[in-house]
Amino acid sequence: MLKVRIIPTLLWKGVGLVKGTGFDSWRRVGPVLPAIKVYNNRDVDELMLVDIEAHQKGEGPDVESVNDFADECFVPFTVGGGITRVEQIAQLLRAGADKVCINTAAYEVPGLVEQAAQRFGAQCVVASIDARRMTDGSLRCFSRSGTLDTGKDPVSWAKALEAQGAGEILITSIDRDGTLSGYDLPLIAAVAQAVNVPVIASGGAGTYEHLREAVQDAGAAAVAAASMFHFTEQTPAQAKLYLASAGVPVRAHFEAGR
Q1: Per residue in 188-211, pLDDT tens?
Q2: Spatial separation of the C-alpha atoms in residues 182 and 148, rounded to whole Å
């Protein structure tokens, strides 16, 4: 079994980082660069930075800022937000991103995921799915930072994205986002069972036990978290200690006091 990755998520809006609940990202967290520098020293396996305003404003990725951020990021760095063309992906990779995260454009720009995978390799393409539970209990994919109902089922869409060449699937529960109440385990399990590529669980992590559940109970290959690391005293290094004690394979370079 591959080692499970711990991935803090940074939501970038305007001049800094934000976080909220249910994709209502109203709470200011702070500037981007200091956060990256802190996480460099906190035993994370990767960092994910998503510009949540880019598509809403019709803007492309801020490549110049990404270049500045990447210069200070010493772990694998995934960047998303505003991507609509393969040329933008090339620019981000040249600026220092290791992977790109594609969500809205996967629905709106047919062929983008496939073109990106063919040109840069599947390992560079993280396909992101934001899912919400409807009143009848069904699940639907939402795009444009959770504001537009695409009408698609997340499991079927995950399978389609894998077929297009996505190397990983990031599945986020909009309902659980920022609540610290735990991941939507049935959602994660349904997606993980439907695809053969790694699935990153996102949306709702609040304790180390939630991370373990996502991996051992739902089948996630990696766990992403934001509020848990931003607003509590829990750390990625301690998360790894907890997971390791539960039999989850993690990268073992953590230190107990970090």
Answers
A1: 999 999 999 999 999 999 999 999
A2: 24
Is residue 255 a part of any domain in this protein? no
| Domain limits for position 64 | 5-245
Distance from C-alpha of 107 to C-alpha of 127, rounded to nearest angstrom: 11
Give a yes or no: residue 227 inside a domain: yes
User: Is residue 157, in this structure, part of any structural domain at all?
Assistant: yes
Number of domains in the chain: 1
The type of residue at 107 is: Y
The string of DSSP letters for the chain reads -PPBEEEEEEEEETTEEEEEETTEEEEEEE-HHHHHHHHHTTT-S-EEEEESSHHHHT----HHHHHHHHHT--S-EEEESS--SHHHHHHHHHHT-SEEEESHHHHHSTTHHHHHHHHH-GGGEEEEEEEEE-TTS-EEEEETTTTEE----HHHHHHHHHHHT-SEEEEEETTTTT--S---HHHHHHHHHH-SS-EEEES---SHHHHHIIIIIT--SEEEESHHHHHSS--HHHHHHHHHHTT--B-----TT-
Q: CA-CA distance, 209 to 194, in Å (whole number)?
A: 24
CB-based contact 31:237 (threshold 8 Å)? no
**95-104: pLDDT as tens digits:** 999 999 999 9
CATH of the domain at 87: 3.20.20.70
Examine residue 142 and state whether it is found in any structural domain, yes or no: yes
Is the pLDDT at 117 greater than 60, yes or no? yes
Kindly list the distances between the CA atom of residue 56 and the CA atoms of 14, 73, 90, 132, 217, in Å, as whole numbers in the listed order.
12, 26, 22, 19, 35
pTM value? 0.94
